Amino acid sequence: MTLSAFVFFFGQIYTLFSIKAVFLIGITTFELGSLICTLAPSSAIFILGRAVSGLGRGAINGGLFKLLRQCFPLSKQAITNSFFGSIQSVGLITAPTIGGALIDVFSWRACFGVNLPLGVMCLVLTAYGVHEQPPRSDAPVLTLKEKVKKVDFFGTLLAVPAITFLLMALQWGGTKFGWGSWQIILPLVVCALLFVAFGYLQYRQGDNALLPPRILKQRSIIAGMWYGACCEGVLAVTEYYMSIYFQGVRGYTPTKVGLLALPMVGGLAIAFIISGVGTTWIGYYYPFMLATSVLTPIASGLLTTLDLEEQIAKAVGLLTFLGLAVGLGLQGPQVALQAVLPIEDVSLGGAVITFGSGMGSALWICASATLFQDRLSKEIQDAAPGTNTTHIQEAGLSKLRESIGPDRLKSVLSGYENAVVQTLYIPLALALLSIVGAVAMERKSIKKKRS
C-alpha cells in the first residue's frame, strides 16, 4: 500500500534533490523494513516492517528510470531495461525455491533477513558506481530551504489517503464485503472526493505540482499508463486464476503449481531480451508494443479453450506463449517516457506509468474475484444441482476434493473449470484494449539525439 500511495511523492522528490542520495535513502529504508520484519515479535510490528519496506521500494522505483537515463544514453535504454527486466524475471523464477529452502533450513524470518546482505551490496555499488551528472548551466540553483518549499506536501496529504482508500475498497470489494455495502461505498466516495481535490490542487499549482499538468498533457505518458495497466492486468489475472485452475481443478500441489508458472515467467524474460535488442537495433519501441497487442489476445483467447480432459502440456504451452507475447511490448512505455521527456521530468512520468501498472493489477484482480465468485456458484449449481457451494468455497483449494462426494466430484470440477475459463475473458478483453495505448504512442526514435 505504501509503495503505491507515495509513488507521486517520490516522483517529485527526484526532480528536486540528488538522485543518488534519494536512491540510497530508499535502499536504506527498504533494508530497515526488512530488518523490522526479520526481528518482528508480533504481527503488528511485522506489518509496520512491511509498510517501511514498501516506502523504501517506492523510493527505489521512483528513481530507477531517471537513474538509468542518467547512467546510459537514450540509444541504450531499451537494452538496459530489457536486462533489468530479465534479471527481475529470474528473481521471480528462483524466489519461491530459495524462499522454501530458507524456511526449511532456518525459518520464515530468513526470507526477510536475506535482504540485508543483498541490500548492503546494493548500497556499496550505488555509492561507488553511480556518479551525479552536473546540473544544466541554465538550471536555477536552489538552497535546501527553497527545495523543501517546492515539495507539494499538501498534494501528498491528498494523494496518499485517496490511493489508500481506493486500494482498501478494491481489496475488500466482492470478497470481505459486497460492492453495494457501505463498507465499500464509503471508501470509494472519500477516494473520489480526495482525487477531485487533488486534481484541482494540481491544476492550480501548475509546474510546481506533485503531478504537473505538463506531464499529463504528454500523450505518450497517458498512452503508456493505459498500456501498462492493460498488460499488467493480463498477467496478474491470468497468473492468479491459472493457479486456481492447476490446484483446484487439476488437484496439483502448491509446489507443482509454482513450477507450472515458471514457463510464463521464462517467456517474459526471453521476450524482454528480444524486444531490448530489437528496439536498440531499429530504434523504435512501438512496433513491439503493437506486436504485444496483436499476439496477447490470441494467447489469452486460446487459454479460454482449456478442458479438463486435455493434457496439461497445452496449458503450459499457452502460458509460455502468453509470457512471450506480453513481454515483447511490456517495457515499451518505460523506454517511451525517456524518449519523449527531458531528463528532469523522467521520474514524474515514471510515477504515472508505475501507478497505472500497479492499479491495473489491483483493479482487475478485484474485478475478476467478483466475477469468479458469482460464476462459481452458478456453474457448480448447473453442473451439480443441490451442491452446497458455500461449503466448497470455505473449504479452500487444498481441501476441495475432500469436501465433495465422489459421485459429484467430476461435475463440481467441471463447474469450477467453467468459472475459471469465464474469468479468463477479463484478460482477453484487457489484451484487446491494450491496442489503444500502443496506437496512441508517439513514433519517437531512440537513436536520434535530443537537443
Instruction: Please state the structural category.
Output: mainly alpha
Task: Tell me the CATH topology of the largest domain.
Answer: Growth Hormone, Chain: A
- Radius of gyration from the CA trace? 23 Å
Q: In CATH, what is the homologous superfamily of the largest domain?
A: MFS general substrate transporter like domains
Could you name the CATH class of the largest domain?
A: Mainly Alpha
Annotated CATH architecture of the largest domain: Up-down Bundle
- List the secondary-structure elements in sequence, H or E: HHHHHHHHHHHHHHHHHHHHH
Distance between the termini: 39 Å
For the largest beta-sheet, the strand count, sense and barrel status come to: none
Helix content: over 70%
Q: What low-confidence regions span 5 or more consecutive residues with pLDDT below 50? A: none
Strand content: under 5%
* Gross geometry: globular
**What is the strand tally?**
0
Contiguous helical run count: 21
